[in-house]
Amino acid sequence: MWKKFLKFLPVLLITGCASMSTISRLTPGEAPRNAKNQYLVEATFASEQTALRWDSLQCSVVVGGKVLPMTPVAGLNNRWEGYIPVPADQNSVTYRFVFDYKLNTMGSEPRPDTKISPPYTLKIVD
């Protein structure tokens, strides 16, 4: 019985760790078009990983192949914001949030890790 369980232990550990962190989009799916063609997007990051080094957390947003930095929102824990460009001739844009951080490890330096959100679409309405 234990041999069968041990065979699946690595899969359980990997799956368990991967599901311990979540990214939540706080941006509505639509925004009114503006003259600057820049649109605010916001996200939160939550994790139950005890090894996560919160002081190492960095967020960016990927849109159109460009990686744009996001900044933490003052006074709010784990909430980030940034602006994404949407050209005037486009009515929507797809983007993803990327959170990079370090995880403490036993007996060695912290290792880098990344959590990537699913793709989101922002529709621009005239």
Index terms:
4-stranded antiparallel sheet, 13% helix, mainly beta, single chain, disordered N terminus, Immunoglobulin-like, 6-stranded mixed sheet, 126 residues
Please identify, by name, the CATH architecture. Answer: Sandwich
What is the domain tally? 1
Order of helices and strands: HEEEEEEEEEE
Largest sheet: 6 strands, mixed
What would you give as the CATH superfamily?
Answer: Immunoglobulins
Tell me what you see in this structure.
- With 126 residues, this protein is mostly beta strands.
- It has 1 helix and 10 strands.
- The chain has a single domain, classed as Sandwich (Immunoglobulin-like).
- 13% of the residues lie in helices and 57% in strands.
- The strands form 2 sheets. Strands 2, 4, 5, 8, 9 and 10 form a 6-stranded mixed β-sheet that branches.
- Strand 8 (92-105) and strand 9 form a beta hairpin.
Give the helix/strand layout.
Elements: H1 2-18, E1 21-25, E2 30-32, E3 38-47, E4 52-63, E5 66-69, E6 71-72, E7 79-85, E8 92-105, E9 108-116, E10 120-125
Parallel strand pairs: 2-10
Antiparallel strand pairs: 1-3, 3-7, 4-5, 4-8, 6-7, 8-9, 8-10
Outline of this structure?
By secondary structure, this protein is mainly β. The protein has a single domain, classed as Immunoglobulins (Immunoglobulin-like, Sandwich).
